[in-house]
Amino acid sequence: MDENKVAEKIKFLAECIRIQKGIVENARKAMNEAQESANEGDDNTEEKLYNSYREEMHNKRDMFARQFELAMEDLNQLNQVVTSKEYKKAEFGSMVETENGVYFISTSLGQIKLDNKTIFAVSPLAPVYKAFEGKKTGDSFTFRDKSIKIKDLY
To answer: Distance between CA 84 and CA 89 in Å, rounded?
Structure first.
């Protein structure tokens, strides 16, 4: 196993975790702010108007709570990636180097630039992943009517 590529993967995973923690924190803040807004204004004399506003804030809180929950699930997934495993095929936790770029199969964070290199963090549910799932180094796959070759897996 190429130690430079493993080191790159470890560094990239750390960056993904940093980004995901930010997403979790933003969702947590938004959820708490919506709850605080719902709790404010108890002295409002127009009860009907206040109840409508409070209900809207509870709905927002519930929406942000769901986003928080999903963000935590993604963070937990990232924490399950094994960087020391030698990957023989494209699967969760692998980095797939193709002619079109490098894909990190983990969570859907999109395009991330680190050390002048662009890597695409994609979910196992992403269509591009489905196109090369289970493929090995040297295999080709078709995505958006284009044949793409896998150059390396790590």
So the answer is: 15
Asked whether residue 68 falls in the same domain as residue 25, the answer is yes
For 68, the token pair is 């928080």
pTM: 0.84
pLDDT along the chain (154 residues), means of 10: 88 96 96 84 53 82 94 96 91 94 96 94 95 96 95 94
Domain extent for 140: 95-153
Cβ–Cβ < 8 Å for 110, 121: yes
HEC string for the chain = CCHHHHHHHHHHHHHHHHHHHHHHHHHHHHHHHHHHHHHCCCCCCCHHHHHHHHHHHHHHHHHHHHHHHHHHHHHHHHCCCCCCCCCCCCCCCCEEEECCEEEEECCCCEEEEECCEEEEEECCCCHHHHHHCCCCCCCEEEECCEEEEEEEEC
Note whether 135 and 89 are within 8 A (CB): yes
pLDDT at 46 (0 to 100): 55
Q: Are residues 13 and 67 in the same domain?
A: yes
What's the domain count of the chain? 2
